[in-house]
Amino acid sequence: MTFKDVLADDMRVFLNRNEFADVVTLQGKPVLAVMSKDSELALAEWRKRVHEPPGVGVELLTVSVVLKDVERLYADDVVMLDDLAWTVLSTAEEAGLRTIHLYRHES
Predict the structure, then answer these.
(1) pLDDT digit string, tens, across residues 31-72
(2) Nearest to residue 69, comparing CAs of 88, 90, 89, 93?
(3) Is 2.40.10 the CATH classification of the domain at 3-105?
(4) Which of 8, 32, 95, 104 would bridge with 21, disulfide CB 3.0–4.6 Å?
């Protein structure tokens, strides 16, 4: 078994609907994703990049998907996630996984 095979097996556990993942619609396409609203890293990056004061209401979301399921995204791209518009803060690709930090202003 190669390292890539081991990673693929790990992704099947991590991105499994019975374990951690949910089916979401991202850019009009249903994909398995693990989502987290608890991202201090995303909040710190947002404050650094956007230069808005701490009192500004912002909702942050970190979405992890299989790399091949979602096209590459770039900072400031606007994406649709389950019928809501979000702005891409940053993305990272590692071990077959694409992690996308999103934000939107609270209304």
Answers:
(1) 989 888 866 666 677 667 776 666 667 788 999 998 888 999
(2) 93
(3) yes
(4) 32
Among residues 53, 65, 1, 58, which one has the least CA distance to residue 27? Answer: 65
The whole-model pTM stands at 0.76
Q: Which two tokens stand for residue 63?
A: 């979405």
Task: Quick: pLDDT tens for 10-25.
Answer: 666 666 666 678 899 9
Q: Assign 3-class secondary structure to the chain.
A: CCHHHHHHHHHHHHCCCCCCCEEEEECCEEEEEEEECCCHHHHHHHHHHHCCCCCCCEEEEEEEEEHHHCCCCCCCCEEEECCEEEEEEEEEEECCEEEEEEEEECC
Q: Which residue, chain included where needed, has tokens 């912002």?
A: 58
